[in-house]
Amino acid sequence: MSDEPTTTPEGGGAATDPKHLRASFWGNLASAAAHIRQATNSDSTRLRGSDYVSVVSFPLAALLLASAQFMPNGLLLRPWFVLFLLVSLLYFIASRIGVVKSFTPRQAHLVWMIVVATFITGSVFALFVFEILRIL
Predict the structure, then answer these.
(1) pTM over 0.85
(2) What is the pLDDT of residues 68-84, one digit of tens each?
(3) Is residue 3 part of a domain?
(4) pLDDT tens-digit map of 106-123
(5) Domain span at residue 36?
(6) Contact predicate 47/55, CB 8 Å
(7) Residues 124 and 102 in one domain
């Protein structure tokens, strides 16, 4: 027997609960979504001033890019709107990436793998859309 307490610390989550260490795929997905939803709705999610810039600029850039379809000179403006969207996305990521310094090496590696997987998913989806458009 160990001298460690058998109760989990308050707010410990799945990392401190042995029954959640190896849950099923769907069970893990559901509990992770519930945990993220709970964290998103907590009081500690107030935005800083720089966060408002990134939260507003990204949807604005997406709307500008979508509206370029209906503008008379939209074809000429579209590369600028794409550049604005790219800069907005990079600013969004850069303004939040500093939190990784407080992670453990394992957490930082997991976050990096999620970022890489998201980039690969977006690239594959773009290729899929281009292929569908090529066929049509």
Answers:
(1) no
(2) 888 888 888 888 988 99
(3) no
(4) 999 998 999 899 999 999
(5) 10-46
(6) yes
(7) yes
Query: Whole-number mean pLDDT of the chain?
Result: 80
Give me the average pLDDT of each 10-residue run along the chain (136 residues). Answer: 46 55 80 84 66 83 87 86 88 84 92 92 93 89
Contact indicator for 111, 100 with CB cutoff of 8 Å: yes
Compute how many other C-beta atoms are within 10 angstroms of the C-beta atom of residue 88.
20
Shared domain for 91 and 103, answered yes or no, is no
- Token pair listed for 37: 């939803």
